[in-house]
Amino acid sequence: MSDKNEFELFREMMSDVAPIEQDTVEDQAGPHSPTEAQLARQYAAQRLAHSNPEYLSLDYATMVKPDDVMAYKRDGVQDGVFRKLRLGKYDINARLDLHKMSLEKARDEILRFLKQCQRMDVRTVIIVHGKGERSNPPAMMKSYVCQWLQQISDVLCFHSALRHQGGSGALYVMLKKSQEKKLETRERHLSHRA
């Protein structure tokens, strides 16, 4: 059977079919009002966007050991990108050293540093937290830093550094592009297509 015959047969079979009129959808009057959960998420996201350090807790962190190798990768980060970060193959464009800082000062500095890096389109950084072999409890700063970085949505992934860059006392950290840089890239891409 040829394509033309199939098409004619289809049209013949569908000749008595009429579109159904949709009359069961109610028209929503007024704007949509968000649920409490949506408002809470929106509020949390706004707090993060404004670098409010209060959402990063100073009360509790899952404790790690001084020599533990730390690794974290958000869903959606490609394995090849993470492997390259782990192997120290990205250029490190900025460095933050947290030695001799209190937890509160370190928390504030991390947020300030990461926001500044993002504004300057710096995507790969190193944060030196130390191993904390002499702290009480051991590795306290390291434990908090790793927990905080997982809570910061702009952090894509991190991994303990190579030995010559601090080993288990430092982290390579990869950041998302800032919203402004994403818009610039999108606009540049659209202007090239036009």
UniProtKB/TrEMBL annotation:
Annotated Pfam families: Smr
Keyword Ribonucleoprotein: no
GO molecular function terms listed in the Swiss-Prot or TrEMBL record: endonuclease activity
Keyword terms, alphabetized: Endonuclease, Hydrolase, Nuclease
Record domain Smr: where: 96-176
PROSITE patterns assigned to the protein according to its UniProt record, in alphabetical order: SMR (PS50828)
Superkingdom of origin organism: Bacteria
Protein name listed in UniProt: DNA endonuclease SmrA
Species annotation: Salinivibrio costicola subsp. alcaliphilus
